[in-house]
Amino acid sequence: MALSYTRKQGQYLAFIYYYTLINRRAPAEADLQKYFRVTAPSVHQIIKTLEREHLICRIPGQGRSITLNLPKVQLPELEPVDDE
Question: Residue 52's pLDDT is what?
């Protein structure tokens, strides 16, 4: 089965999965920004891309509403973020 996402997108998807599993709610964009050590616009852009590719769903105007459209078996393992 071919992956329908890039390596970077896969890491965001895996983070969303594990964050939701542990915290019982979806991550906010600020949580993604903190974990991946990127800017807010970068996170927003990748979230929009994941949604456009139908890999996630969101409810407009509602925070922490990200849900995955993929089962766990189609997600990569979450890799630690490199300390640079």
Answer: 96
pLDDT in tens, 41-81: 999 999 999 999 999 999 988 999 999 999 999 999 999 98
Reported pTM: 0.91
Domain range list for the chain: 7-74
Cβ atoms of 13 and 67 closer than 8 Å:
no
Q: Report the C-alpha dihedral over residues 84, 5, 10, 42, rounded to 10 degrees.
A: 50
What CATH number is given for 7-74 in this structure? 1.10.10.10
